């Protein structure tokens, strides 16, 4: 591998981890007070080492994989950039029940890699845990205007990527591309708190909020029933939490 290729791969990895970290931060900063938590892979490993209830949760989230050579079956975590859970405390006991609300896969862009998420979404189906994807659709941020495009197409002229994602994923959420300084994301989190409080009155349904996506930026994929602004992930998590309570 040449130095140029290695540097390109390093930058791609860095940008991808930044998106995962942004999703983790927004969910935790806005929903922890509602006992909804996002765990990344490092969090999961740390918690399962010391918490029996969390180990039981992770065992439930894992999916079976068969090995033909060994004629054996193992279980493994699906592609999980963020596992979102609800912590329900049992009154009068010290036991805590962790309920999985969603598995969140993060992709800054696709470039023919959307099949990774599709594969794991199919594997997770039997668990009935929503498998969703967050993307910056980052081609729309190319420096050269003539090279800007959306890999998600739009509802009227849907492309292969959008068709497949809508067919196999529970939701796709579009998020704006944040810089590494973190100033913008702090501002957006602060402004979203009041939106979330107002949304509670309607059961988090029918709220038109686009704090975390720059929907006016062109090109833009356009929203539909399954492709939504990132704000909707936060509302959906709250709805899925109350479904668990019901």
Separation of the first and last Cα atoms: 54 Å
Strand content: 15-25%
Our Rg estimate from Cα atoms comes to 19 Å
Q: Could you report the average pLDDT, rounded to the nearest whole number?
A: 87
Tertiary shape:
globular
Q: Which bin fits the share of residues in helices?
A: 40-55%
Please give the count of helices: 7
Strand line-up in the sheet with most strands: 1-4-5-6-7-8
Give the tally of structural domains.
1
Describe the structure concisely.
With 246 residues, the protein is α/β, with parallel strands linked by helices.
Walk me through the structure.
The protein is an alpha/beta fold. The protein has one domain (3-245). Helix content is 41%, strand content 19%. The protein is built from seven helices and eight strands, in the order αβααββββαβαβαβα. The protein has helices at residues 3-31, 41-50, 52-61, 114-124, 160-168, 183-199, 231-245, and strands spanning 36-39, 63-67, 72-76, 82-89, 96-107, 131-135, 171-174, 227-229. The strands form two sheets. The protein has a six-stranded mixed beta sheet with strand order 1-4-5-6-7-8, sandwiched between helices. Strands 2-3 form a two-stranded antiparallel ribbon. α6 links the parallel β7 (171-174) and β8 (227-229). The N and C termini lie far apart (54 Å).
